[in-house]
Every structure is written in structure tokens, then in C-alpha cells.
Amino acid sequence: MIGLVLISETRTAIEMLKAAYRILGVKDLPQVEVVCLRAENHLRTLRSRLNQAIEKVDDQHGVVILSEVYGSSQAQIASEFVHEDAVEMVCGYSLPMLLKALQQRACGSVSELTKVLECESKKYIRRVA
Fold first, then answer.
1. What pTM was estimated for this model as a whole?
2. Where are the domains of the chain?
3. What is the average pLDDT across 64-77?
4. Does domain 3-122 fall into CATH 3.40.720.10?
């Protein structure tokens, strides 16, 4: 199963995962970690915490990192861990994207999952005027 690491600067990732668990009717899922990476922390600390989370969820099927904002300090640090077909990252996560990731990670490759997440998330962006 593909591991998931959610990163954010605040509690956004924690609360998003709690909401997903409520919707799915579960209390916990294996191979899912949340890391709150505050920009004021030392870079070495941020890298270490992220590396630990990746190692914890990786069972040799790969890891997808979900970051709340592309270009943020957290996403920049996480991008250092990206290796094609082993660790990939998708930025700009939403609740529908997280739900899709949790439901689809048991089949396919890391690359396939990140492509699905990117495409599926666009379905939920709507302009209402």
C-alpha cells in the first residue's frame, strides 16, 4: 500500500485527516502520517521530521506527500525527498483529494496515484457566480 504524508504549517493537515476519517467512518488508517512543519523551526529539524514520517509509512510501495501550498517552505523541503516512482508530492490538497488518496492507494503505483489526484481534484474546483 502506498504511504501518505500530509504536511502543513498549522494544524490544517491534522484537521483535514480527522474530517476524512469521520467521512470514511474509521478511527485510524495504516501508513498515514501528519507532519506540521513550522517555518520558524530549524531546517535540519524539518528535514528530520519529514524523513522520519516518510520512513514510517513506506513499505516499499512508495509514498505520496500531500502539501497544502505549492512553493511554501514545507513544500520546498518536501521536494528534496521526491524520487520518481518512490516518493512524489502533490500540492494544494483538499478534502476530496485526500479522500481519493485514502481510497485509491492500495492499487497502482505512486506515479499513477499522483496523476489521479491531480486530475480528480480539478473536478471539485468550481466558480459560482
1. 0.91
2. 3-122
3. 88
4. no
